[in-house]
Amino acid sequence: MIYLDSNATTQVDPLVLESMLPFLRESYTNPSASYAAARHVRKALEQARQQLASLLSAAPENLVFTSCGTESINTVHASVQQLWPERRQLIIGGTEHPAVLESAERWKRQGGTVAITCMTREGLVDLDSLREHLQAVPTALVSIMWANNETGVISPLEEIVEIAHAAQALVHTDAVQMLGKKPLSVAKVPVDFLSLSGHKIHAPKGIGALYLSPRVRFQPLLVGGGQEAGRRSGTENVPGIVALGQAAAMMEAALQDSTEDRLRQWRDGFEARLLAALPDTIIHGMAAPRLPTTSSLCFPGVDAAGLLILMDKQGIACSAGSACHTASLHPSHVLEAMGYDARHASSTLRFSFSRLNTETEVQTAAEALITAVQKLRALWQAEEGPVVLA
Ligand code: PLP
Q1: 384 CA → ligand 1 middle, Å
Q2: Measured from the CB, is residue 208 less than 6 Å from ligand 1?
Q3: Spatial separation of the C-alpha atoms in residues 218 and 24, rounded to whole Å
Q4: Within 10 A of 210 (CB to CB), how many other CB atoms are there?
Q5: Quick check: CB of 69 below 6 Å from ligand 1?
Q6: pTM of the model
């Protein structure tokens, strides 16, 4: 298989797997126990916290391990809504992940109001729209993703934080896709809360984390044994945490060498090859800052479901829009928010690369894709006459 769906989930890095195995085999003790074996496990857990903190330029004590990005996001929204009831509004971006969208629905059910910012054609938050929502209603929280899972478009988060803080609103960012792919620092961009997930950075599924600014109050979602300094109860997923720490260290090392440039070159080469062979291809967010690992492409008039089948037959895994939460091919709300219609969205495929791919894989996928698009267009022309491009 040529795996080009890393925004849905990543392959566990073999070194990450190695790092966690001892904590499934011999070092299985509860890290809260008092004997020597448990102290060893506790030490590994705290080392992982430091590794993750280093990737974020955060203090380790401001990180809380959770089970996934979704839990982190839900926790922040619930905490803010309970602690700032006098400020009823939550503002979210128009292209957020369902973890934020559904959590925002609950915010409404709990009596709050939710405003959704307009987005530009390039997939960026319209900052004037953000300002208007902030001026209209006292806002507790602005929750805007750092990088988008479907298009890879990167938000101007520094400006968003400035604007929100000027209106006394707190800022949460879903950094699940941004983490490890571009340098990210909570010291430079002073968000109040940040959510992340292990399985997008070559750690296994079932481990995530939450950054909590020391400046803000916080109320845990899970209460019980008081783990994670009372901020997230439940016996720690030590193998997952160790894996997340190792994955974070490896992502940090990759950010310091030429990995980002290499991935960007592959992605740019992929897109250039497609544009040369299929000049009407539309690349979403092309003029915006984008993750070097994501390419969201529309082939006007071509059915993405058919393309997916042809690519699958060639052993190439990619996705139509966001496939991390559902197997169904629904029109993408992300593209809709960017002003594209459902027909356009149903001709869109997403390719997401990682450092575990090779350049040859990316090039092979480009050729397979060109053949598949041409095949579907030829079929369509044979059946229905000339293709009318959307
Ligand atoms: N936010 C974004 C942008 C994502 O891509 C995902 C992935 O599914 C999530 C949140 C949810 O993360 P998790 O699967 O760890 O709950």
Answers
A1: 40
A2: yes
A3: 32
A4: 26
A5: yes
A6: 0.96
Cα 304 to Cα 127, 298, 308, 321, 338, distances in angstroms: 32, 9, 6, 9, 19
Question: Mind listing the pLDDT tens digit for each residue in 342-352?
Answer: 999 999 999 99
- How high is the pLDDT of residue 102? 98
Cα–Cα distances (Å) from 354 to 15, 122, 166, 184, 293, in that order, read: 15, 23, 37, 18, 6
Q: Which of 65, 96, 97 to mutate to test the pocket of ligand 1 (most atoms within 8 A of CB)?
A: 97
The rounded distance, in Å, linking the Cα atoms of 224 and 218 is 16
Task: Provide the b/e sequence for 306-317 (b: ≥16 CB within 10 Å).
Answer: bbbebbeeeebb
| Tokens at 131, concatenated | 């300002």
Based on the number of CB atoms within 10 Å of its own CB, is 18 exposed (0-12), middle (13-18) or buried (19 or more)?
Answer: exposed
pLDDT at 325: 44
Note the pLDDT tens digit of each residue in 318-356.
999 644 444 555 679 999 999 999 999 999 999 999 999
Q: Evaluate whether 198 touches 237 at the Cβ level (below 8 Å).
A: no
How many whole angstroms from 318 Cα to the centroid of ligand 1? Answer: 17
User: For the chain, which ranges sit under pLDDT 50?
Assistant: 322-326, 386-390
**Distance between CA 40 and CA 34 in Å, rounded?**
10
Nearest to 296 by CA among 119, 122, 96: 122
Buried b (16+ CB within 10 A) or exposed e, 134-173: beeeebbbbbbbbbbbbbbbbbbbeebbebbeebebbbbb
Mutate to test the pocket of ligand 1, among 102, 149, 199 (most ligand atoms within 8 A of CB): 149
Cα end-to-end span (Å), the chain: 32
